[in-house]
Amino acid sequence: MKQIIRLEKVTLNNSADLAEILSSDKPLAKANGSNLKKVTAEEFFEKTKDWQDSTNSESYVIIKDNSSIGLTSLSHMAQESASVGCWISSKEWHKGYATQSFELLLQIAKKRGIKCVVSTINKDNVASLRIWEKAGAVIDKSSEKAKAQINLF
Question: What does residue 78 show for φ and ψ, rounded to 5 degrees?
């Protein structure tokens, strides 16, 4: 698959599109179990920075055609492991961008020396489960939510 997207660290400049998505994307809010709330680029950027600091995380904006379409992160990074999270504008669902961003994030994790990435995924989130499965994850569906794990080394 041709690489269409790229990842960039979160900056105030690339936060405006993300703030707009979070303020207006009803299907995304429903999928995330949240309510729409108007948020400015500055509020988004500051909240993301605070979250990164408090959770030992790195967040990356998913960029397509110089527009921010989503966010992915490595969070709760320990010496050898990290949790992965991702959200993308519903207008960009089912186009392979989450898969591409996941592949790029795994490359970043490897460069950081992270040996294992994990995620907790709603069992009805078939697209996310499929992304993890395609990447070779072990997925435990015995609990209320699925737990996915990939050993990188």
Answer: -110, -175
Q: What tokens appear for 15 in the block?
A: 């936060």
The pair of structure tokens assigned to 148 is 């996915």
Is the confidence at residue 1, as pLDDT, over 80? no
CA dist., res. 131 & res. 109, Å (int): 16
Crossing angle of helices 97-111/126-134, nearest 10°?
A: 50
Length of the chain: 153
At residue 70, the 3 state secondary structure works out as strand
Structural contact between residues 82 and 117, judged by C-beta atoms closer than 8 angstroms: yes
Is it the case that residue 153 has pLDDT exceeding 90? no
Q: Which structure tokens are listed for 124?
A: 């009805």
Q: Which amino acid is located at 36 in the chain?
A: L
What tens digit of pLDDT does each residue of 84-101 get? 999 999 999 999 999 999
pTM for this model (two decimals) = 0.92
Q: How many Å apart are CA 113 and CA 131, to the nearest integer?
A: 22
pLDDT band at 37 (very low <50, low <70, confident <90, very high): confident
